[in-house]
Amino acid sequence: MEERYIAILAGSRKGEISHTMPNAVKMAETLHDQKEYSDYSFVVAGAPARSEDDYAKYLENHPYIKLVFGRTYDVLKYADAALINSGTASLEAALIGTPQVVCWSTQFITAFLAKYALRVLDHIKYISLGNLILDRMAFRELIQYDYTTEAATSEIRRLIEDKAYRGKMLADYAEIRAKLTTDDPSPSRSVARAMIETLKLEYDRQHTNH
Predict the structure, then answer these.
(1) pTM
(2) What does the alpha-carbon distance between residue 79 and residue 85 come to, in Å, rounded to a whole number?
């Protein structure tokens, strides 16, 4: 993929896609209308268990938004920045080195219960493994009502335009990778290591099939 583009990973479930894609598409529209981003494409990495039908209604009349299946690793690797629904793809972006902003939005009752659970487990401050591993915010998380078109657009622009901000994130990524090579037994790092092995297996599977 030679053109400059911004990656969109909307999650693997239909519910995640339905909550992520509307603002992601509006973000793409907003950026595409700006002169400095008019030549950018927006590449949606389709989830393995989904089909084109799951994305079709969001992509109508948007020729600059492309849907690609079976190339999530490549989509992330060559993107200038990525908007990612919270999940394993966020850790993958950190390992690859793609600047990202994480989003998470769901039904009100689910969000309420999740927020309550996090209050009970008050030591859990973040929803993304990369941030959990560092115990600080390496990349921004737009959760529920914070996930707006304006916030996503602003953050993507900052990831691309603010070299110092981008550089700090990449330095934090390096620290995440370093921590994952230690023998630290903390649960979040153990889970992260297991996910890394899963990602490696998925990457090998995809590239073996090509």
Answers:
(1) 0.80
(2) 16
